[in-house]
Design a protein that fits this description.
Layout: H1 3-12, H2 14-34, E1 39-47, H3 65-76, H4 79-86, H5 89-92, H6 95-105, H7 111-122, E2 123-127, E3 133-140, H8 143-201, H9 206-238, H10 248-252, H11 254-277, H12 282-372, E4 379-383, H13 396-421, H14 428-435
C-alpha cells in the first residue's frame, strides 16, 4: 500500500476518524476533570556518609559509600521509621486522618499501623546519583497534609538514625560499666596482695637490696679465694717443717741470722783457741757452753717459727671454713631474695595486667558513655517540605494531549483496518492492482487519477 492510497483511505473515512478522535479526546478531557487532584511535598536530606560516627570520627572506606546510602534508603522506608512518623503529633492529631481511619478500619486496626501503611503507599525515596542528598517525597490529596507527613518521615528517620547510634553505645556503656566494677575489684585485690607481700617480707626496693647482697656475695667470694690461697701457702711451708732451715721465714729471720753468725764466730774462735790452748782449757770450755746456749736458742727460735707456721695454717683453715660458711649463707640469702623478687615480679605483673585491663575498659566506657549521650547525627535537613501550590497530578494538559493523540491514532488505525477488511477501488492503480487489467480511460468528474502509462 502506497502513501497515496493511505491518504485516499483517510480522506474517504475522515468522518470516522474525526468521530473516534472526538470521542477519545472527550473521554480524556472528562478523565482530566474527574480524576482528583494530588499534591506531592518533598524534603531533602544530606547524609554525611564519609563519617559513620560524627562524635568519635572514623571514615568509611570509599567502596562502602554506595552500600551505606542504600542502607539509609532502606531505613527510611522501614516500618520502624514509618510508625514513628505516624506517631508524630503533627499528623497523629489530624482530625481528617482520624476520620478516614475510622471509616476504613472501624478502629479495628491501630491508627499508627494504618497510617504507616498509608504513608508507605505514597512515599518515594530518591537518592541522588553521585551525591549524598536523599529526597523524601509524599503524595496525597491535601497539600498541607503531604508536607506534614514528608517532614514527619524525615524527622522520624533522623531520630531513628540517632537512636541506631546511641542505643548500641548505651548498651555497650552499661556492659563496660559492669565489667569495670569487676576489673576494679581484681586490680584492688592484686595491689593489696602485692603490698601485703612487701609488708610481710619487709621489701621496699627489691632490686636495690638484691644488688647489695649480690655485691656482698662477690666480696665474700673474693675473700674466700684469698684465704684459700693463704692457707695453701701456709700448708705448703708447714709441710717443710722437717727441713726447717730451708723455710723462707727461717732464712729471712734477722734473729736467726744473727744467732747463726754468732755461733759461726764462736766456733771459729774456739777452733783457733783449741790449737793454742788445748781442748780442756777453761776458755775453750766456756766458749763451747756459749755455743751450746746459742744453738739451743737457735733451735728454740726455729721451732717457734715452725710452730707459728702451723698455727697460721690452722688459723687459715678456720678462716677458710668461716668464709666458706659465710659465702654459703650469703648464697642462700641471695637465692632467697631472687625467689622473693621473682614472686613479687609475678605479683607486680598481675597488678600491671589488671591495670591495663582496667585502663582499657575505663577508656572504652568513657567513649561509649559519651557516644550514648550524643544528640548529633550525620543527617541534616537541606530543605524542609512545604505545602505545594500546584497539584502534581493529574496533569490535565498532558492527559488531553495524550487522549487527542490516542484518538487520532485509533481513528487512523480503525480506518485502515476497515479498508483492509473490505477493500475498495479508489483509483486506477487500485483496478490494476486488484483486477490485474489495464485502464482504458476514466469518466470526467470521478476524480480518478490519470491512467497509468
Amino acid at each position: 500500500m502506497t502513501i497515496q492510497q493511505v491518504f485516499r483511505i483517510l480522506r474517504a473515512r475522515v468522518r470516522l476518524i474525526l468521530a473516534l478522535f472526538a470521542a477519545i479526546a472527550a473521554l480524556g478531557v472528562l478523565a482530566a476533570l474527574v480524576i482528583p487532584r494530588s499534591y506531592t511535598a518533598s524534603t531533602a536530606l544530606v547524609i554525611d556518609a564519609k563519617s559513620a560516627n560524627a562524635l568519635l570520627g572514623g571514615l568509611l572506606p570509599p567502596q562502602m559509600l554506595n552500600s551505606y546510602m542504600a542502607t539509609q534508603v532502606d531505613v527510611i522506608t522501614s516500618r520502624r521509621v514509618l510508625e514513628r512518623a505516624a506517631n508524630d503529633p503533627s499528623i497523629s492529631n489530624d482530625a481528617a486522618l482520624r476520620e478516614k481511619w475510622r471509616a476504613d478500619t472501624g478502629e479495628q486496626l491501630a491508627f499508627p499501623v494504618w497510617l504507616a501503611n498509608r504513608i508507605e503507599r505514597g512515599l518515594e525515596v530518591d537518592p541522588a546519583r553521585d551525591s549524598n542528598v536523599v529526597t523524601i517525597s509524599y503524595g496525597c490529596a491535601v497539600a498541607e497534609q503531604c508536607a506534614r507527613i514528608a517532614n514527619a518521615v524525615a524527622n522520624a528517620y533522623i531520630a531513628t538514625n540517632l537512636e541506631m547510634k546511641v542505643e548500641p553505645a548505651r548498651q555497650y556503656a552499661q556492659w563496660f560499666d559492669e565489667r569495670n566494677q569487676g576489673i576494679r575489684g581484681k586490680l584492688e585485690a592484686a595491689r593489696h596482695k602485692l603490698s601485703e607481700y612487701q609488708r610481710q617480707h619487709g621489701i621496699v626496693a627489691s632490686d636495690e637490696r638484691l644488688d647489695v647482697e649480690t655485691a656482698r656475695l662477690d666480696e665474700l667470694s673474693r675473700q674466700l679465694v684469698t684465704v684459700q690461697a693463704e692457707r695453701n701457702a701456709t700448708r705448703s711451708r708447714s709441710g717443710q717443717s722437717g727441713n726447717a732451715q730451708t723455710l723462707p721465714e727461717v732464712i729471712q729471720s734477722p734473729l736467726l741470722g744473727g744467732l747463726k753468725s754468732e755461733i759461726a764466730r764462736l766456733e771459729a774462735q774456739r777452733e783457733q783457741a783449741m790449737a793454742r790452748l788445748g781442748r780442756n782449757h777453761p776458755e775453750i770450755v766456756r766458749t763451747g757452753r756459749e755455743i751450746d746456749s746459742l744453738q739451743r736458742r737457735l733451735n728454740t727460735e726455729t721451732a717457734r717459727i715452725v710452730g707459728s707456721l702451723e698455727t697460721a695454717d690452722r688459723v687459715n683453715v678456720a678462716r677458710e671454713e668461716d668464709m666458706r660458711a659465710a659465702v654459703d649463707r650469703q648464697k642462700e640469702k641471695v637465692l632467697e631474695l631472687k625467689a622473693r623478687r621473682d614472686e613479687m615480679a609475678g605479683l607486680e605483673q598481675e597488678v600491671r595486667t589488671a591495670q591495663q585491663a582496667y585502663d582499657l575498659v575505663t577508656g572504652r566506657f568513657a567513649e561509649t558513655n559519651l557516644e550514648s549521650q550524643a544528640q548529633q547525627t550525620n543527617v541534616f535537613v537541606l530543605s524542609a517540605a512545604t505545602a505545594p501550590l500546584e497539584p502534581s497530578a493529574p496533569r490535565r494538559l498532558v492527559i488531553v494531549a495524550m487522549s487527542a493523540l490516542l484518538g487520532l491514532l485509533v481513528g487512523v488505525g480503525v480506518a485502515i483496518a476497515l479498508e483492509m477488511v473490505r477493500r475498495r477501488v479508489r483509483s486506477e492503480s487500485d483496478i490494476i492492482e486488484v483486477l490485474g487489467i489495464p485502464v482504458l480511460g476514466a469518466l470526467p468528474g470521478t476524480r480518478l487519477a490519470p491512467p497509468a502509462r
